[in-house]
Amino acid sequence: NTQIPVREAYDREFERFLVRMFLERHPDAVAKFLDSDAAAKLPLEARLLASLALEPKTSASRVAKLLPQLDRPPNQEELLRLAQFPEEPGVGEALKALLTNEKSRASVAEKLLAHRTSLDAAKIAPLFGEAAKDMLQSPDENVRDLSYTLISGFQIKSLEGDLIAELVRPLKKDTRPPRRHLQIFKVLRDLQTSANAELFATIAQTDQDPEIRNAALETLAASRAPDAASRVLKLYPNLTPAQRKSSLAAVSTNKAGAKTIVTALLDKTIPQSDLDPVTIERLATVLHDDPDLAKLQRQLGGIFHDVLAFDGSDTAWADSNITLDGPFTLETWVRLTGNIHNDDGILGSPGKLDMNFFQGKFRVWVGTDGLHDVVVSKKPITPDLWTHIAVTRDAKGNFTLYQNGELDSTGTKTANQKFENCRIAFSGPKTGTEGAFAEYRLWNSVRTPAEIRANFDRTLEGAEGLKRHDGQWGKLNKGARIAKTIDAPPLLTDEQSKALDTKFGKYTTLAAKGHPEAGKPFAALCLACHQIQTQGGQIGPNLSSAGAMGLEAVLRNILTPNAAMEPGYRTFRVEMTNGDLIDAFFVSEDKDALIVRQAGLPDRRLAKKDVRATKYIRRSLMPEGLLDALPDQSAADLLAYLMTLK
């Protein structure tokens, strides 16, 4: 925590603030004075203050000359002034001196790590190598821990060999400090080491400690060694389902690994049943037009889904001739592109009815009797993100809106009119809907909130009261077409729905048998991405009040994270120019780089010059199958603990 100065200390800080503010207004005069003989007679702190008042890049060399003369550790601003411009004359040498000095290196390293995402790791890493190497050999565990963080945070790849030597040395002596091993494996995983795949594979297969075996496997899967992917696949038959899933996820994020997976799928080394839509999507993104990928896609025809797509032209609608008379429920998954407005609609009849997205918010507009807006959504929808929209009208003409299965808004006016000759995707403006629909359903009854919530992410055909379903589009006008895509909503088949219902029933029953205190340690699974009270990561929503949501909502978020996903927590995908794929949480950006966050990893700074493309995809950062990896009693205890958080 930063201490706030008081009394005389506050007065001194305020004086420094005023002096610096004045100096910053006259940089040329200050620079000229600092080069004069008169400046040399000033106290060191005064010259440092004046130097910091200059333009940052030009002042870095001046600050570098003064810092070694201080009788105190450099503060954060002084360090950052050097670290942001390490190529300026004398700056790199000054940083090296601070990092190799045993008295200052710990505080210097900690301060720089706190701001690593604002620094160019490629320029900084060479300066830190010597200091980090010395710290690795320290008998002090805290110093070694700091070295691991430094190597990982600034991607000091030159020390991969030293880390591997640390792994091998205890193994030969048959002394096993598991914590130290686990830390080294984590750093090597973060570095995506390009060496010693054979060693990692051997440890993953033969080590006596299951944590060490799993850490070695994760390091191997993340490795960029040419033979890493093939070695993962040799271990594949003996991996648990959870290990298989995580290994495929890691290996599929680079071209060499993705190519190895596709080859293994084609020759049946990996069962095609192990391939989930997420991995397929990654393979398609990484490999693009690879002929083997095309061959695999033909074999996996079932993974592609039909959607009704519209190009935004005025004629982009389907002449469905729908009539709305009395109570009804209309629902569909929509993915709209560009600037979402009232030219995007899901159903309409010229001058009479317009179900569109005015300023991004879904609404029902009725042109007759001067009604106009009868109900308006509270939440806007997000561009390029599949979102489920449902609208109901009861016998009295009251409208209700739902978004992603949850109640959104109730109407302020009643509208009992009969609407004839309605067109799918029609809207009043001269331009039309741009996007796609899936699972378009019309019912002749008012679906209850429970029915909408239970079935919004499921494929339904032939259900009682279902008047119209996907495929019953009517005549498609110019600008409307049926398209095949792997970017489809997270819909469940009948078989998958039954399996999910079984899971809900199982974990609902288990939760009542759990012990909250016994479940608290398992919350570490959540803390990698979520905060609970003051602990945890900052990738997913805060879980400090999870219990207030109720068990049904908690289970829905755990078991079907991609269905009811909040837009702010969808995956940010970065395609690198070297072919690598990074799925992460977007943190921030500046003119030179993107800052992203992944579970269990330090925030990463990605230089924009190394980025080929970015986009948000409709997938939550929350992994599926979280509870499946736990024994039943452990899952029960975790759920019981989560329900106490209110």
Structural account:
Helix 11 (160-173) runs antiparallel to helix 12 (178-191), helix 14 (210-222) runs antiparallel to helix 15 (228-235) and helix 17 packs across helix 18 (277-287). This protein has 25 helices and 22 strands. The chain is of the alpha+beta class and 646 residues long.
Supply database-style keywords.
8-stranded antiparallel β-sheet, 41% helix, 646 residues, alpha+beta, 25 helices, 21% strand, 7-stranded antiparallel β-sheet
Outline of this structure?
This protein is of the alpha+beta class.
Low-pLDDT runs? none
Distance between the termini: 28 Å
**Relative helix content:** 40-55%
Mean pLDDT, rounded to whole units?
A: 89
State the helix count: 25
Give the amount of beta strand, in percent: 15-25%
Which class of secondary structure composition applies to the elements?
Answer: alpha+beta
Total count of strands: 22
Principal-axes shape call: globular
Main sheet, how many strands, which sense, barrel? 8 strands, antiparallel
Radius of gyration, in angstroms, nearest whole number: 30 Å
